[in-house]
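Need a sequence for this fold. Nothing fancy.
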Protein backbone atom coordinates (compact mmCIF):
# COMPACT_ATOMS: atom_id res chain seq x y z
CA UNK A 1 0.00 0.00 0.00
CA UNK A 2 1.28 3.35 -0.93
CA UNK A 3 0.78 6.33 1.20
CA UNK A 4 0.09 9.62 -0.34
CA UNK A 5 1.79 12.69 0.96
CA UNK A 6 -0.64 15.38 1.99
CA UNK A 7 0.05 18.79 0.73
CA UNK A 8 -0.24 21.86 2.96
CA UNK A 9 -3.77 22.49 1.72
CA UNK A 10 -4.92 18.96 2.42
CA UNK A 11 -3.69 18.68 6.03
CA UNK A 12 -6.19 17.39 8.59
CA UNK A 13 -8.03 20.10 10.45
CA UNK A 14 -9.94 19.97 13.71
CA UNK A 15 -13.31 21.65 13.81
CA UNK A 16 -13.39 23.88 16.93
CA UNK A 17 -17.09 24.74 16.74
CA UNK A 18 -18.33 21.98 19.11
CA UNK A 19 -15.66 22.87 21.64
CA UNK A 20 -16.67 26.54 21.60
CA UNK A 21 -20.30 25.50 22.09
CA UNK A 22 -19.34 23.52 25.19
CA UNK A 23 -17.33 26.44 26.58
CA UNK A 24 -20.26 28.84 26.11
CA UNK A 25 -22.68 26.37 27.71
CA UNK A 26 -20.39 26.04 30.75
CA UNK A 27 -20.06 29.81 30.97
CA UNK A 28 -23.83 30.26 30.91
CA UNK A 29 -24.23 27.52 33.54
CA UNK A 30 -21.79 29.20 35.95
CA UNK A 31 -23.33 32.64 35.42
CA UNK A 32 -26.83 31.34 36.10
CA UNK A 33 -25.89 29.32 39.21
CA UNK A 34 -23.77 32.02 40.85
CA UNK A 35 -25.51 34.01 43.55
CA UNK A 36 -24.85 37.73 43.70
CA UNK A 37 -26.25 38.42 47.18
CA UNK A 38 -24.16 40.62 49.43
CA UNK A 39 -24.10 39.27 52.97
CA UNK A 40 -24.68 41.62 55.90
CA UNK A 41 -21.97 41.70 58.51
CA UNK A 42 -21.22 43.13 61.91
CA UNK A 43 -18.79 46.00 62.22
CA UNK A 44 -16.26 45.05 64.89
CA UNK A 45 -14.04 47.57 66.68
CA UNK A 46 -11.27 45.94 68.67
CA UNK A 47 -10.18 47.88 71.77
CA UNK A 48 -6.79 49.55 71.54
CA UNK A 49 -4.22 49.51 74.28
CA UNK A 50 -4.47 52.65 76.39
CA UNK A 51 -0.94 53.54 77.52
CA UNK A 52 -1.77 56.90 79.04
CA UNK A 53 -1.81 57.31 82.81
CA UNK A 54 -4.83 59.60 82.82
CA UNK A 55 -7.91 58.14 84.45
CA UNK A 56 -10.64 57.37 81.96
CA UNK A 57 -14.28 56.52 82.30
CA UNK A 58 -14.91 52.92 83.34
CA UNK A 59 -15.99 50.56 80.59
CA UNK A 60 -18.88 48.16 80.82
CA UNK A 61 -17.72 44.55 80.55
CA UNK A 62 -20.09 41.88 79.26
CA UNK A 63 -18.78 38.31 79.27
CA UNK A 64 -20.51 35.36 77.62
CA UNK A 65 -19.59 31.82 78.67
CA UNK A 66 -19.60 28.84 76.35
CA UNK A 67 -22.98 27.75 77.76
CA UNK A 68 -24.53 31.19 77.11
CA UNK A 69 -24.37 32.48 80.70
CA UNK A 70 -23.94 36.26 80.53
CA UNK A 71 -22.28 38.48 83.14
CA UNK A 72 -22.36 42.28 83.28
CA UNK A 73 -19.34 43.66 85.18
CA UNK A 74 -19.04 40.32 87.00
CA UNK A 75 -22.73 39.95 87.95
CA UNK A 76 -24.97 37.33 86.31
CA UNK A 77 -27.58 38.89 84.06
CA UNK A 78 -30.21 37.66 81.63
CA UNK A 79 -29.70 38.81 78.04
CA UNK A 80 -33.03 40.66 77.99
CA UNK A 81 -32.02 42.64 81.13
CA UNK A 82 -28.78 43.99 79.63
CA UNK A 83 -30.34 47.32 78.48
CA UNK A 84 -31.59 48.02 82.02
CA UNK A 85 -28.13 47.32 83.44
CA UNK A 86 -26.55 49.60 80.84
CA UNK A 87 -28.97 52.43 81.65
CA UNK A 88 -28.24 52.04 85.36
CA UNK A 89 -24.48 52.02 84.74
CA UNK A 90 -24.63 55.11 82.50
CA UNK A 91 -26.70 56.95 85.13
CA UNK A 92 -24.02 56.41 87.79
CA UNK A 93 -20.88 56.58 85.61
CA UNK A 94 -19.79 58.67 82.66
CA UNK A 95 -19.06 55.72 80.39
CA UNK A 96 -19.51 55.41 76.67
CA UNK A 97 -17.85 52.08 75.88
CA UNK A 98 -18.89 48.46 76.17
CA UNK A 99 -16.52 45.52 75.84
CA UNK A 100 -18.12 42.20 74.92
CA UNK A 101 -15.93 39.18 75.63
CA UNK A 102 -17.37 35.89 74.35
CA UNK A 103 -15.82 32.55 75.18
CA UNK A 104 -14.17 30.77 72.25
CA UNK A 105 -16.91 28.11 72.22
CA UNK A 106 -19.86 30.50 72.63
CA UNK A 107 -22.55 30.11 69.99
CA UNK A 108 -22.83 32.94 67.51
CA UNK A 109 -26.50 33.30 68.31
CA UNK A 110 -25.74 34.27 71.94
CA UNK A 111 -23.15 36.84 70.83
CA UNK A 112 -25.53 38.39 68.29
CA UNK A 113 -28.32 38.58 70.87
CA UNK A 114 -26.03 40.44 73.29
CA UNK A 115 -24.80 42.78 70.54
CA UNK A 116 -28.41 43.52 69.53
CA UNK A 117 -29.23 44.48 73.12
CA UNK A 118 -26.18 46.76 73.38
CA UNK A 119 -26.76 48.32 69.95
CA UNK A 120 -29.94 49.94 71.25
CA UNK A 121 -27.69 52.63 72.74
CA UNK A 122 -26.29 54.55 69.77
CA UNK A 123 -23.94 56.66 71.92
CA UNK A 124 -21.97 53.59 73.07
CA UNK A 125 -18.83 52.28 71.45
CA UNK A 126 -18.96 48.48 71.21
CA UNK A 127 -15.72 46.52 71.25
CA UNK A 128 -15.19 42.77 71.12
CA UNK A 129 -12.30 41.38 73.14
CA UNK A 130 -10.70 38.00 73.58
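Here you go.
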Amino acid sequence: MRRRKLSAEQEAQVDMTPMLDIVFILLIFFIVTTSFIKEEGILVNRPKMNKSNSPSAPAMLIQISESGVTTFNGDLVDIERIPARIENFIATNQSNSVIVIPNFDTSHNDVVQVLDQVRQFSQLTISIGK
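For context: The mean pLDDT is 81.
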